[in-house]
Amino acid sequence: MRPEPRSRDETLALRRRLVGSSCKLFFSNDPMKIIKAKGQYMYDENGRQYLDCINNVAHVGHCHPAIVKAAHEQNQLLNTNSRYLHDNLVDYAERLSKTLPGKLCTFYFLNSGSEANDLALRLARQYTNHEDVIVLDHAYHGHLTSLIDISPYKFRNLEGQKEWVHVAPVPDTYRGLYREDHEDSVTAYANEVKNIIEQAHKRGRKIAAFFAESLPSVGGQIIPPAGYFQKAAEHVHKAGGVFIADEIQVGFGRVGKHFWAFQLQGDDFVPDIVTMGKPIGNGHPIACVATTKEIAEAFAATGVEYFNTFGGNPVSCAIGLAVLDVIEKEHLQAHATEVGNFLMELLKEQKMKHPIIGDVRGSGLFIGVDLIKDQAERTPATAEAEYLITRLKEEYILLSTDGPGKNVLKFKPPMCFTKEDARFVVDTIDKLLTDMEKEHLNQQKTSTCAT
Ligand SMILES: Cc1ncc(COP(=O)(O)O)c(C=O)c1O
Question: Where are the transmembrane segments (predicted)?
């Protein structure tokens, strides 16, 4: 035990000396030292309580006692790799299969979202014998080399786009290519995918997969119009490719109406591969790939073993099972709908009041608030969004921004978030936006007086 706890500044100095500087901190101008958390709250070294609107990993609430207990009990008994038979792994696969459409009946367990997406890529390529991947613009799918290659959010700042990667426009009906006034944005966006495939074929390329987050989050909390995935999948299947749905941020009941976000597209849509991570273990590193028998068999046909030392170990699976239990017992999916709808209503009231709010969109406890400088161009209000989240932190609320313009306030709190929390956040946003508007007016008056 250390005799004296370190101050925040000492920890920061040590981190700066010892940890790679590309590992960024939240609120980098004034980083926080968090030492404990409970439910939807986090606490700094001075005992100050912050409302967490960011953390979709602590899905059922930080340090939920049922999850801590499940981990502790299994840790006392056994933890080993999945080359031994263990009931936790098969029980967990069976429980997950009950949440998914019947054809997604084969499971692989891993340790991170990145590992899951990398395996999904291997499965797709092995099954189709093709190499190329279509991704949505601004997407992020993980930190492995293979995934940086299919993440425009990253590769645009690095050496660029590989010849086997094709970028489709984000199906964003607010600020995308085809907007809410388009007569058929579903077909228009799907036709973009069709065109990409045709162009790729002309160059002799073959499509292995269409890789998409079911709700593009890094892309700016986007809700693709229902029916888009079906139409895009039709084109991709025709080209011999498969559809991979990345549910790493948005799965496990977050969207309220459904357990999986891809189900928002309609009952007639089933991806060929689904990847899961983040909320799956409530903070414990576990991830999963679900796919069809046919795809799994094609992968096995190589004769090469898939072995993952920690993936699917008894402790991880005990935790995964406990997360599913809590979601069920505490009715968190229905809760996400109820609280999410309430939060959306409050935010929409603010939209009527503050012109900086261009759009409020979401499903369940996955909500985006698009801040704009002007109605005509919908120019992202990037600096204002940054200022707002800095000020919110001073009011003990943790919120982040996302989207290519870094102007979308991104709500994805632990699922135990309450209506009172929603009211507190929105009242605070109202107060801060009102102050910002007053300040802006004063500045305008001063500059008019000066001229
Ligand atoms: C949509 C999406 N996919 C994949 C990943 C990678 O997950 P991990 O950081 O657990 O490797 C992330 C992480 O932010 C993500 O947001």
Answer: none
Residue of 252, 278, 284 best suited for mutating to test ligand 1, as the one with most atoms within 8 Å of CB: 278
Measured in Å, residue 77 CA sits from the centre of ligand 1 at 31
Q: Report the pocket of ligand 1 as residue ranges, CB < 6 Å.
A: 112-114, 117, 140-143, 213, 246, 248-249, 277
* Phi and psi at residue 236, to the nearest 5°: -70, -45
User: What integer pLDDT is reported at residue 266 of this predicted model?
Assistant: 97
Ligand 1 centroid – CA 171 distance (Å)? 20
List, for residues 235-291, the tens digit of each pLDDT value.
999 999 999 999 999 999 999 999 999 999 999 999 999 999 999 999 999 999 999
* One-letter-per-residue 3-state SS of the chain: CCCCCCCHHHHHHHHHHHCCCCCCCCCCCCCCCEEEEEECEEEECCCCEEEECCCCCCCCCECCHHHHHHHHHHHHHCCCCCCCCCHHHHHHHHHHHHHCCCCCCEEEEECCHHHHHHHHHHHHHHHHCCCEEEEECCCCCCCCHHHHCCCHHHHCCCCCCCCCEEEECCCCCCCCCCCCCCCCHHHHHHHHHHHHHHHHHHCCCCEEEEEEECCCCCCCCCCCCCCHHHHHHHHHHHCCCEEEEECCCCCCCCCCCCCCHHHHHCCCCCCCEEEECHHHHECECCEEEEECHHHHHHHHCCCCCCCCCCCCCHHHHHHHHHHHHHHHHCCHHHHHHHHHHHHHHHHHHHHHHCCCEEEEEEECCEEEEEEECCCCCCCECHHHHHHHHHHHHHCCEECEEECCCCCEEEECCCCCCCHHHHHHHHHHHHHHHHHHHHHHHHHHHHHHHHC
pLDDT tens-place string over residues 362-401? 999 999 999 999 999 999 999 999 999 999 999 999 999 9
Cα 320 to ligand 1 centre (Å): 17
What are the chain's domains? 8-63+331-447 (3.90.1150.10), 65-329 (3.40.640.10)
